[in-house]
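It is worth pausing here to work through a concrete case rather than discussing structure prediction in the abstract. The textbook approach is simple: state the sequence, then state the predicted structure, then interpret. We follow exactly that order.
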Amino acid sequence: MKLTRALMMASALFMAVLGLITSYAPDRVLETHGTVPDGPTMLLIQMMGALYLGFALLNWTARGVIIGGIYARPLALGNFLHFAMVAVMLTREAIEHGVLPLATSAAVFSAFAIGFGVVLFRPPVPRRPEGEGS
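Step two, the predicted structure:
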């Protein structure tokens, strides 16, 4: 339960930071990843920021929920799918274009994908009552 809570909190904070950066500095995000900013692309990046902020809020509010097995499966599945797909896309682009920030981003997204994969495909660890020993 503690690991699941930590994963939910870390992913919420990560996505909140991404959401704020992509909402308010889309031009810097595009430049950092080797893309020339233009109007439509910046709008898409800002829309992505709104999605990240929504996902961050979802994960933050669900940080205390039992997740694993059948419990909160849609939450775990959505997070796993998102992080895994983005990790694959970033890895492909990092290999094709040799851009280090893409490779770094791919590593972070891969770590979250692995974490949510473990949560998704294992049964939840039951909570211990307060009075029980270690």
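Step three, interpretation. Residues 2 and 65 are 11 Å apart (CA to CA). The helical segments are 2-24, 26-32, 39-61, 73-97, 100-121.
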